[in-house]
Amino acid sequence: MDDFPQRRLPSGLVRLQRRQRNVLHLIVLCFTLLPSACYTRQVAEIDPYCLRDSDCDRGQRCVAQFCQRRVSTVATKPDPVAPASAAPAPEIAKTPRDQPRQVVKVKSARLTTTAPRTALIIGNASYSPLQSLRNASNDARLLGETLERVGFKVDMMLDLDLASMRRGVTQFGKNLRKRNGVGLFFFAGHAIEVDGVNYLLPVNTPEELREANVRFQALPVDWVVNEMRYAGGDLNVIIIDACRVNPLPSFSRSMSRGLAPMDVPLGTMSLMAAGPGQVAFDGAGDNGPFTKHLVKQILEPGLPIEQTFKRAAREVYRETGDRQQPELRTNYYGDFFFVPE
């Protein structure tokens, strides 16, 4: 029995089928290539680092899986608009996607007038057997009264022995940890420098004090710095009016004239009555030139703390005929006003 003869389709129908297949192939090709090109262009506009490496074999997969999601997220979530009165946020440089991004916390650079203010004032004048100082107690009282006028809670301590100085500084650190805000320490009296370390002398300092045992019979300034530093306040201020002539002539090997420069940690300012190698003058009146001009500038309204100290230093420099030049060291980048405008 013969096979059934094969029926041939008309030539027109064959051509139509071929055209349909070609159209379907084109459609599939468009749906395959067009999204990748589209997403690549959008991602390049959002993050130029996304396809930075042209040799990356994950580029298409990233475009299809990761970048598409990023584009839709960015398109549907507008950037937040900061209030008109708010300060502009610091710009953070973009980093590649594969690198972790750092979170930057910016602390307020301007302290409000309601921030707690705490001060410890120590004035040692009645030294025995060392030479007494005429104006140290007067300077401490004057500065303490001035700070109370501008809102500080002041602890005034006069003519202290070593044990009392240690207790006072320790309690000062506890008060700062409770109140935070601004802390200010002021010392007027005798001080010496031994091997680059500054020491504040109590009123009962013995004449036979030597370099080998000075750390056991005097208060290092670093003690004060650390108490204030670890209290976690917004601003710490250390003022030393003690760069006077060496009260211990027996010191000769390692002690220099005046005090050593201070290294201040972050958030701290220090003001010394005289620079390294200089001595501070007691003055002819009831107060020394340093404290006299410092108090005057503190009461000036609208003056940032750094300008307050600079103006006081300039006036001391003029009055003493260039012989006493106070030294300011700062590691504080905000603004604080003793008396706001």
Can you walk through the features of this model?
- This protein is of the alpha/beta class and 341 residues long.
- The chain has a domain at 117-330: 3-Layer(aba) Sandwich (Rossmann fold), CATH 3.40.50.
- Helix content is 36%, strand content 13%.
- A six-stranded mixed beta sheet has the order 2-1-3-7-8-9, sandwiched between helices. A three-stranded antiparallel beta sheet has the order 4-5-6.
- A hairpin with a 2-residue loop joins strand 4 (191-194) and strand 5 (197-200).
- Helix 3 runs parallel beside helix 7 (289-298), helix 4 runs parallel beside helix 6 (221-229) and helix 7 (289-298) packs antiparallel against helix 8.
- The chain is elongated.
How are the SSEs ordered, and which strands pair?
Blueprint lengths: L10 H36 L12 H18 L40 E7 L12 H14 L3 E6 L3 H18 L2 E7 L2 E4 L2 E4 L13 H4 L1 E2 H9 L5 E7 L26 E5 L16 H10 L6 H15 L7 E4 L11
Helix pairs in contact: 1-2, 3-7, 4-6, 7-8
